[in-house]
Amino acid sequence: MEELSRLCCLAVEDVYGGFLAQIFQHLIQQGRLSVNQLAQRCRLPLRQVKAGIAALIQLRLIFHYTTPDGLSTYQANVHSAYNLIRAGRIVELVARRYGPAAAKIMEHLAILGYATADELEAHVCEDNVLTTSKDSAELTNGHHEEGVLLGGANPEVRTSFRTALKHLLDDRFISSVRDAHFQSEFDARQDVERHLQHLGMLPSAKGKKIQSDIDHRVDVELESRLDGTVSSASIMQDFEQRDSNENMTYSQVYLSTIPMLCIDYSNLLAAIRNERVASTAYKLFGQPAAQVARAACSQVDVDSGPFKIQSATSAPIQRLNVSQIRSSMAEEATQETLNEEDAENGWLGEYALNGYADPQVNGAQHYSQIDQHLAVLAEGPFSFLSQEPGGGQWLLHRSRLSNFLRDGELMRFMGESLSGPALRILRMLMDKGKLDEKSLQEIGLLGAKELRQCLAQLQLMGYLELQEVPREPQRQPNRTIFLWFYDAERVRKVVLGRLYKTMARLFQRLHLERERLASTLSKVERTDVQGSEEEMLSQAELQVLFKWRQKEAWFMTEINRLDESVVILRDL
Amino acid sequence: MVPPKVAASPTPGPLQRGGRNRIAEALYAWCQKHYEVGHVFGQDELLSAGIIPNQDLSILLSSVTHLVDQSLFRLHDRIGGTIGWELVDQEKAKNYAGLTRDERIVLFIVDAAGTSGIWTKIIKFRSSLHGRVLDRVYKSLEAKGLIKPMKHVKNPGRKMYILAGLEPSEEASGGAWFSEGRLDIGLVDTISKVVEHYVSTQSWQVVEPEDEEDEPPLPGQKRKASVAGLDSPGDERVKAVKDNEGQHKAKGPKHAPQKSYRPFDAGWRSYPTLRDITNHIMKINVTPTILPQNAIKQLLEVMVYDDRLFKMHRSPNDDEIPDDPVSNIVTMYRSFKTPNDLLERHQLEKRKVSSHESVRKAALRQQELEDIGRGGTSEVPCMMCPVFEICGDGGPVNAVTCKYFDQWYVKLAEADKEAGVGQYNPKGKEKNQHKDRQETNQVVNGNSGPRVDVDLEPS
């Protein structure tokens, strides 16, 4: 946890600068604080701290909670702070799937934290006007700003914004924020409990059975409060209403409850997961099987929320829809061909419509072939797939899928830092449970010396644990059985800690490198230089700038790769 | 065990004349004829032979004593306080001839331990002889070629002896994979490679690049492979049928210059089983060591743990014995890698020890890239850092003082050059070209997130 909180601080600092990071850091390290306490700890004037807190709340980086007697306290929102690292990737994913217009929306939403659809539209349109005007360089400064203030006179931009937004909403890249999202899980739960008690819906008696019943009810209510689904239809309707009724004032807008939109990261997680499965399948069985595997996995969605509430809706086994696999493969195929043709101007609307037109031509496959591939996959090591007996439907076991990925990831991770038969030992222990050294030697065909070295190394790294079972109460070592065992859950935590720490180091180092080049970079950041670096900078400076960008890319690549591991190990 | 009653004496009359020895010999001959070596006789049984005249106990006693002296009989106490005599093989008895008493005792103890051998400490305890005496005895027995020292796998430090004519039992020697009490890693490696290759040829379907002919899938690419092809002629036919069935399918993923492979359709039953693999190993005669089925089974388990093979199950054919009688299934083995991959790997290993530095370097780099695959955490210095645990803010090692990053930059720049990206190009406006610097084709977003300046006017 300590590593994670440090990493979050660094991410906040990297994105939003030192001031907010300082407040955030105190909150994340010291837990729940009131404004006064916070100002004291930060050694900052109260007014500044308040401004900072307001900004942090807007960015969804902290939770706030006000008790019934009026005392407000704040807590760091580790989850969404961590998501800052992912913001770039989800924008990229959207750009790839839906084209640049949609990516722009995501970008703005990420900057805003959360926003109503109107605000979002205003921002995106404004930005569009700015960029287009800059590109065409026709208008002088004064003119176009008026246009923006008039509400984005450009109807073309607006319609493209609305279609893109509709797609994003439909595919759950954007969901809504509710009040409960601004409270920590504990507070939200307490609120729900109080609310239900107030309504007299909770039994007053105590006992284990009743307690579980209460928990269940609270879960249900909490889930409904945290439910971020928002229908694109209602948002679109709002737009139309507003268009027809331009004169509606701000207060009127706020009177009706307008959904606040925010980024939903679950699609990113699912995409990373599916990619992982597909690449494993590709390595083993080649491209067609990989496509089927990806399409099959994409039918299982991920819950990215910070609070994992066990609900009845996420069944452990998902029935796969073969025709959907087929259509999504067809879509993928068309998208690929289109992407090859013009990667630049790709726009989603057309693909999705055209994709269905003639799937046969575009490389979609017959049902029987998909069945075949699924069968080959299921027979191979992809044990999360199975078929109902008698050639029925295909099933996908969620927990097996995530365990499959988790084990693979852990093995990969451990294999990187270990040598020799260490992985063999680990798999043996995974398979057999607890073993003593003698049986490890026997089963694993290992020499005693080699084995001992390996075990010591594994224990040192924290991947293996040793259990002592004394045969006598005196606990003499020679009358004690020593059993080695592997606990995936513990190892997962160890590995996550290392991942966080590594990411934190990378951020720190990136920061350090930036400091070193501060003079050049500050010049690059000047508004008159931006965009025309070629003319304004000297050759040497350009060289430095290029080297720096390269370095930054290296760091970000590695951070993203590490984040991928985090997705597999933590979020699935 | 009640011995069969012998009604009439099988031996002819002239025993009387022969004196003790001849009675004893006759008695021994009778025993040998009717009983196995190692059978323990009671007095009644010996008398029932009808060799001892008049069932005279004194004659019996003297002849038995004679036999014991000759080591042809061995004395035993039996339950209930009586005495029994164990029949000893003549050959064995010869060993005892001309030994001192001590030597005899020791040899007897070692002999009794059989193939499992015996620890000197136990000999000492059983014989109650002095340590020095024992040392002398061991030396003389070894010189006479009667016993030899041996090593036990589980307790390599113990000094143990075994009869010179015996091989240590499997438990003591550790089985086929051990030679002289130590694990023969070279043997394990070689055989596992052979096994992997064999399994691999059997678990992938060959796709001919031109047309999907019914050709046997294993032309002599390697010696082993060709033999494997002869292994089960029935397989080819089935394969051919399968080939025809799957003709409409896309071609295999791995396009090697000469052939490519694709997985068999689901439900394929001819992945090699333990029996097939053992037979194959025997047939190709790769090692003089005899590898029994259970040794191969042990090796296969290890290979599964090494993530080279994986198991599949099916119901047994008619002539097969199920591996797991409870659920009545046979285990089949399948490899992760195609023969092409294996070949490639093999060549890579070769190149890694090549004499040319550039070749070696390239091979190492290739290996590195393969290992990375997706998610290249191993490239980050921190992941391999020897002082990662003590790295921390304000500590002796931290992100600022770290010296590994500079090396990392150099390495990355080199890798970029190799991949042909990341060269500074003053004219090209495409600054993004460095983004796909890895073969992994992972597109990087150069930006971790939006950069926002929050307005904070301390007004």
TrEMBL record, chain A:
GO terms for biological process: DNA-templated transcription. Keywords: DNA-directed RNA polymerase, Nucleus, Transcription. One of its GO terms (molecular function) is single-stranded DNA binding. It is found in: Nucleus. InterPro entries: POLR3C_WHD, RNA_pol_III_RPC82-rel_HTH, RNA_pol_III_Rpc82_C, RPC3, WH-like_DNA-bd_sf. Its main location: nucleus. The keyword Transcription applies. Residues 7-63 form the RNA polymerase III subunit RPC82-related helix-turn-helix domain. Residues 165-401 form the RNA polymerase III Rpc82 C -terminal domain. One of its GO terms (cellular component) is RNA polymerase III complex. Residues 419-485 form the DNA-directed RNA polymerase III subunit RPC3 winged-helix domain. It comes from the Eukaryota. It holds the Pfam family RNA_pol_Rpc82. The keyword Endoplasmic reticulum does not apply. Component of the RNA polymerase III (Pol III) complex consisting of 17 subunits. Belongs to the RNA polymerase beta chain family. This is DNA-directed RNA polymerase III subunit RPC3. It comes from Capronia coronata CBS 617.96.
Automatic annotation (TrEMBL), chain B:
GO terms for cellular component: RNA polymerase III complex. Gene3D superfamilies: Winged helix-like DNA-binding domain superfamily/Winged helix DNA-binding domain. Residues 205-265, 419-459 are annotated as: Disordered. Keywords: DNA-directed RNA polymerase, Nucleus, Transcription. It comes from the Eukaryota. The keyword Transcription applies. One of its GO terms (biological process) is transcription by RNA polymerase III. Pfam families: RNA_pol_Rpc34. Residues 234-248, 427-439 have a biased composition (Basic and acidic residues). The keyword Nucleus applies. It is found in: Nucleus. Belongs to the eukaryotic RPC34/RPC39 RNA polymerase subunit family. This is DNA-directed RNA polymerase III subunit RPC6. It comes from Capronia coronata CBS 617.96. The lineage of its organism: Eukaryota, Fungi, Dikarya, Ascomycota, Pezizomycotina.
